[in-house]
Design a protein that fits this description.
73 residues; Udp-n-acetylmuramoylalanyl-d-glutamate--2,6- Diaminopimelate Ligase, Chain: A, domain 1; 29% helix; globular; DUF34/NIF3; metal-binding; NGG1p interacting factor 3, NIF3
Length: 73
C-alpha cells in the first residue's frame, strides 16, 4: 500500500487538529506536496541539519517534527 503525505497528515490531525494550534504556530505541511508518496519517515523534536542528514542517509522522504522549521513564538 502506498501512502501519500496527505494520508499521514490526516492521521496526525485526528489526534492533533490544526484548530488547536496557537496563533504563532506554523503547524501542518510546511515543505513538500500533499500528493508526494511516503515510503519512510523520520520523527524528531526539531528540524536541524543533523536530522535532515539522518533522514537523507536513511532514505526517508518525510520528516515529522514537533516544532516547525519556521517558528516565531
Amino acid at each position: 500500500m502506498t501512502m501519500k503525505i496527505k494520508d499521514v497528515t490526516s492521521v496526525i490531525e485526528t489526534f492533533a487538529p490544526l484548530r488547536w494550534q496557537e496563533s504563532y504556530d506554523n503547524a501542518g505541511l510546511v515543505v513538500g506536496r500533499e500528493d508526494d508518496e511516503v515510503h519512510a519517515a523520520l520523527l524528531a523534536v526539531d528540524v536541524t541539519e543533523e536530522v535532515l542528514d539522518e533522514a537523507e542517509r536513511l532514505g526517508c522522504d518525510l520528516v515529522i517534527t514537533h516544532h516547525p522549521i519556521v517558528f516565531h513564538p
